[in-house]
Amino acid sequence: MNRQAPIEGCRVLIVEDEYLLGDDLANALRSLGAYVIGPISEVAQAMSMTHDSFDVAVLDINLRGASIYPFVDELRRMKKPFIFATGYGADMIPDRFQDVRRWEKPYPLDNVIADVAEMCGPLNPPIVA
After folding, report:
1. Separation of CA 63 from chain center
2. Could you tell me the residue range of the domain that residue 47 belongs to?
3. Which of 5, 11, 77, 111 gives a 20 to 30 Å CA spacing to 34?
4. Into how many domains does the chain fold?
5. In a domain, 127, yes or no
């Protein structure tokens, strides 16, 4: 993937309980200039991150048996952009979240990064020389 200007400086929260997946995503985002928070593997820890400490979130839905949905409800209330990167199919996701971008594991890393870059774009417009 080519370096994408909108991702540089973007603060990305990764909430993922499978360490290798979360670490791979974090390293890929860092290599493009993003500031990565996480991966975080517990819902309670994610909930403590809701106060403007990140720009975009990449979320697994099930963290060691706990649902991420209360955190997602808070993100929606705060109008924070996020995507799901999960093992859940669309039929397992509540109707109120059917409009959320979703990548099923094992997800194509470049596609998740492209979505993050798109969501960061309005936050970090490209620099014109």
Report:
1. 14
2. 5-120
3. 77
4. 1
5. no
Q: Provide the angle, in degrees to the nearest 10, between the axes of the packed helices 109-120 and 19-31.
A: 50
Please check whether residue 126 lies inside any domain of the structure.
Answer: no
- Take residue 20 and report the two structure tokens written for it: 């290798």
Q: Is 120:83 a contact under the CB 8 Å cutoff?
A: no
For residue 123, give every residue at least 6 positions away whose Cβ sits within 8 Å of its Cβ, in sequence order, or none.
6, 10, 55, 56
Q: Per residue in 43-96, pLDDT tens? A: 999 998 877 689 999 999 999 999 999 999 999 999 999 999 998 888 889 999
C-alpha dihedral, 73 to 94 to 26 to 123, nearest 10°: -50
Of 42, 41, 14, nearest to 28 (Cα)? Answer: 14
Decide if 27 is inside a domain.
yes
